[in-house]
Every structure is written in structure tokens, then in C-alpha cells.
Amino acid sequence: MESVLVHRSARLLIPSLSDLFFLAILVWLFMTGGGAGWQGLLADADLGWHIRTGDYILSTHTVPHHDLYSFSKPGAPWYAWEWLTDVLASGLHTAAGLKGIVLAAGVLISVFATSLIRRMALKGSHIMVALAIALLGVGSASIHFLARPHILTLVLLSFSVWMIESDREQNSRRIWWLVPLTIVWTNLHGGFLALIAVLGLTTIGTALEVWLGGSGTLRSAFRYAKITAACAAASLINPYGWNLHIHVGDYLQSDWIRSVVQEFQSPSFRTENMMQFEALMLVGIMVAATLFRRRRIVEGLWIVYWAHMALGSVRHVPVFVAVATPILAAELTVWWTAWTASSKKSSLPGILNQIAKDCLPGFCRGSMWPAMVVLALVFIGEPIKWPRDFPEVMFPTEMVHANLDLIGKSKLLTTDQWGDYLIYTDPKLKVFVDGRSDFYGPEVGGEYLKLISVAWDWQQIMDKYQFDLALLPAQFSLTQILKLAPGWHVLQDDGKRVLLARTPTPVLPTGNSPSEPRF
Q: What are the domain boundaries of the chain?
């Protein structure tokens, strides 16, 4: 017994290859020049209103059902559908400021990446193949590596698919843990729908496998159908009930949202991460065709469905990575094994195969090292440049703080992202728009787009909302027009952002009318 305990203690103290992969991702993305660093996680200021909504929930013990932040739609119905994540963000922010937020996000991203390589290793994938596919997957998914609630969906989806894959190999009651997980997930992020989609595809695919004479039974198909229905029913346990599903469905199907919100648009294969996704997708198509020929319909459906979704909306690229990359690595391993079957052990393929075989156990276990490193980061201060505010290069942090009193007394026109930052700076400020595109919709959102594009009726919209202050990027056409407009003057201009105020209308002396001639 003592020798067993010593062996287990040693395994906990000696870092595994899986642990080293976790630490490498953490260091590469956030602590060296390989990624955008901790500040890069704050490139989207939606986090600002998430934090302040969490503050509101913790202070009032209620989940908001009406708007808290705008003067364009004051008190209008609003779905704070990520309220539980907002509470977590508020707690982290209260305890450790923005450092707590970005550290948590960075750890979750590293956990997501590590879950991919662990799933590949447990499938017996060739480690060299697994590392290549995992790194391509992390690179592809990095387009959405931000301190936002969707990071939780990536982690939960990867582990959920892992559970489904394990259950398909050997049925277990553990699969029913997906039901309570769905309850939590629904209140964390709208990505819970991805789990229901995967379960639905599993049900259909299992039935098709039986019909085509493959493995499985109709009993298994009915079992997955029951799990799918149970998870769908569990998702109704949220502050908004079934209205949340209607709202999310309308949001995802909105033509306006898909035409104006970049993350809902098709990917542009011009950047490095999108070229990495392109490579994965092409491999995925070939793998899916092979799987269909072998009557492994479920995995083939997963790949094809999420590739289709990713081509329609770039926000689904990380979802494709979470679902498909372990399948790709396993199938490529089959191809590699067949190709190198006749290779000698002294040849390059033979040497690589032996290295991969020796390394495989190291990717199937863990130790306490990741937790120890993360705990150390919690207490490390100055040597690391932890963010104390949103990045100045992207947000007018100094200008906002210098003019906070004036902004609080004015109706300010600014961008949606800067509106998010204003809410973070002072939740009592009322904004025209912010990052809640589902809340503003085409009505107010369309007017905002008309303003920044200087549409023919932009002056009418300015008058409608009675803007008396504007904080805009210097390169905006509207900024240049307001700088020349007789009713506006520049208060501050740092070359990147411009703060303008409407000139007060002069008050005429009593007894004189502007229509009366003066002699």
C-alpha cells in the first residue's frame, strides 16, 4: 500500500506532457510575443457591461428583465441571458480587478486546448499528428479568444463531446450528467444550444448507422433521443423560461444581425488563423467522406454540420474545432499507420512512431503542476503586466476619465464598443448603444449605423436623440463633418479620438424677436 501511495504522489508531483502542453499554451498566448497577451483578451469591451450586470445582480439579488444602461431604449425588455457568467465576472473583478478576469479567461482557453490533446491521446492518436491538429485548432479558434462568456461554452462543449464519445464506446450512466450540466450552461451562455445540436445529430446518426447495417441498435438511438429531450427540457430552467429560446432563436436567425455583426458573417480566408481553419476544414471533408463510407455516421455528421455552420458564421469556427479536431487526429492516425506499416524501425517514420508510442501515456495523465502555476500567477504582481484598464490603444480611456462629469450630464454619441467601456467605467452613465446587438436590434442599431456612415438622414437622427456631445474615432467621416459643422466645436483631439460638444444656442434679449428688424 505504501509503495502505491508513493507512486501516486510521484505521479502528482512529476509534470506530464499534458501539463507541459497546458503551460506552453498559457505562456505562448499570454506571456510571450506569440499571442496578443493579457491585454488582447480585453479587445472586446462587452466584458464591461457583463461585469456591471453582475454587480447589479449581486447587489439586488435579482436578474434584470429590463434595460439598465441606455437612453435610446430606457426600460425596454432585455434578456440578460448570460447572467450567471456576469455574476462570476463581477466576483472576479471585485476580488482581483481585470487581472482576475483575464487570468481566468487565459486558464479556460488553456484548459480548452489541453482537453483537445487529451481527447486525441485517449483515442490513441499518433502524438505528432495530434500536436499538429491541436495547434492548428488552437490557432483557428484564437479568433475568438476574448474574455467573454463564450469561452465557457468552448470548455463545456469539449468535455461534453468527450462524454458522448466515451458513452458511444461503452454506455454509462455518466452521460446523464449532461442534464444538470445543461441547466448550468444555459445560464452561463447561449452556446448550450450547441450541446443539444450535437446530441440531436448523435440520435439521427445512430439511427442511420443501424439502418445502414452498421454498429449500434435502435435502443441506443432512442436512448440518445431521451438524453436530447432531457437536456432540452433542462434548458428551460432559467430566469426567462422558454422566452429565452425564442429570443436566442430570433437573434441567431436575424438577417440584420448577420449582415452587420462581423462574428456572424462568413470567414475571410486571408488571415493566418482562417487559413489554419481552411486546412482543418479540407481535412475534415475528406475524413467525413471516409467515415460515411465506413458507416460511422455520427462523427461524419458532426464534422459536416459544424463545418457548414462555421462557413456561414465565423463565430462557429471554435465550435468546429471543439467537436471535430479529435476525430480528425484519430482518422489521420489510421491513415498514417497504414502508410508506415512497412517502414523499418530505423527509418524516419519508424522513429517517429516509436517516439509517439513512448510519449502517448504522458498525454493521458495530469499532475498538480498546472494548478500550482495558476496559483502562483494569482499572487504574482508587478513582473507581469496585468491590465488595470481596457487597452488605451483601442479605447479612449484617458479622454473618458478626464471628462467623466461632462459625459454624465450629456447625451453622448459614441461607438458601441466605447459605449461598453463607458458602462464599465460608470454604470450610472446612459449610452446610445453598446455591444448588446440583440437588445438594440435593427431599429436603434440601424440608426446608429446610419449615423456613423453619414447616411442622408443623419441630421434628423442627431436631432431625434438630441445629442450634445460626441466621442468618436478621428478617422470617422462623421467626426470630420461635425468638426466643420457650425453647431459643434472640438473639446479635445488626441489625433486618434475626438471629443466634440454642441455649441449652445444663444439666448436672445427679452423683447426682441429674431424675425423683427432692428434699427
A: 79-376, 397-502
